[in-house]
Design goal:
The chain has about 300 residues and is an alpha/beta fold. The strands form three sheets. An eight-stranded mixed β-sheet has the order 1-3-2-4-8-6-7-9, with helices on both faces. Strands 5, 10, 12, 15 and 17 form a five-stranded antiparallel β-sheet that branches. A four-stranded antiparallel β-sheet has the order 14-13-11-16, with no helix packed on it. About 40% of the residues are buried.
Length: about 300
């Protein structure tokens, strides 16, 4: 199946949005579709491109990876082309051939069997002054991808000198309409900052609080010790103190409950939305209250 690419506006190639690199991250895909409607009906000062669904087979089979070869497309952006490309590497090359022509690259993601508090992920300090104009609750700088891989889409963009970031936009398998509306509002805020839509913006541009720009990854990830059913006592976005019980894990063999407590004080930024969970999988994440290296910023 051919990956669809859409372009809007005239002039220089300003910004490209890419969604669905991970097949089951449905909020990112749906926001890309909503964004297409917005751009189609807007007067644009520059060109905007969208690849709304990269991992088509993964979306149909509800998998994060590309089921054709079992690889993560986001870890298939190679710095030099090998003699023989896997299916995922061919897709990554196709995506880069399009997105690499733009000044800005925005990679749209969302959680898998979970839901994120929407935020921005960056690899380079030089984009901080720009990405704060999305106005999300926080920005996190990562040195590598989720698996520690430096062949990710953002790493490739950084190496090639492109401005880029990823947006975590909410639920993956389960889509929440409030995440769609919220994410669209933040992206439109950023487009007005870039002066992409012609005409003045009536409202004042929203910016991320400088104290919520994290120059190192200050999330504490809590994984479950065994398989079971997960039940939450706190909600996404709640402030918790170290030691607070956030969820309980039911062992269906003996019906014992294990408390899963916050290991740092901060805000819950990720919660599992699928109750059935396997040993070692992530139940929730807590983000420290202030940006990790933000003193003086």
């Amino acid at each position: 199946m051919k990956i669809k690419y859409f372009q809007y506006g005239k002039g220089l190639k300003k910004i490209c949005f890419v969604a669905g690199i991970h097949g089951m991250e449905n909020t990112g895909i749906q926001i890309a579709l909503e964004l297409m409607k917005f751009l189609k009906n807007s007067n644009l000062n520059y060109k905007a491109g969208i690849l709304p669904l990269v991992n088509i087979e993964g979306a149909l089979k509800e998998t994060r990876e590309n089921p054709v070869d079992g690889k993560d497309i986001n870890n298939s952006f190679l710095n030099k082309k090998p003699v023989s490309l896997s299916d995922s590497e061919k897709i990554a090359q196709y995506v880069w051939d399009i997105a690499g022509e733009y000044e800005w690259i925005i990679d749209l993601h969302s959680a898998g069997f979970a839901r994120y508090l929407p935020h921005v992920i960056i690899y380079e300090d030089r984009v901080i002054e720009d990405v704060k104009y999305f106005g999300f609750p926080f920005v996190v700088k990562r040195k590598t991808g989720k698996s520690g891989n430096r062949n990710t889409f953002l790493a490739m963009a950084a190496q090639k000198g492109k401005k880029a970031c990823a947006l975590e936009l909410g639920g993956g398998q389960t889509v929440f309409i409030e995440d769609i509306n919220y994410g669209m509002g933040k992206i439109i805020n950023f487009l007005h900052y870039l002066n992409l839509p012609s005409g003045p913006k009536k409202e004042k541009l929203i910016k991320t609080d400088p104290d919520q720009i994290y120059l190192r990854d200050c999330r504490k990830i809590i994984k479950v010790p065994h398989q079971g059913l997960l039940f939450f006592r706190k909600r996404l976005g709640d402030e918790v103190k170290k030691g607070n019980t956030v969820a309980e894990l039911l062992d269906t063999a003996d019906f014992k409950l294990t408390k899963l407590n916050a290991q740092i004080s901060g805000k819950i930024v990720y919660v599992r939305t699928k109750n059935n969970i396997n040993s070692g999988e992530t139940a929730f994440m807590v983000l420290a209250k202030r940006g990790g290296d933000n003193k003086g910023r």
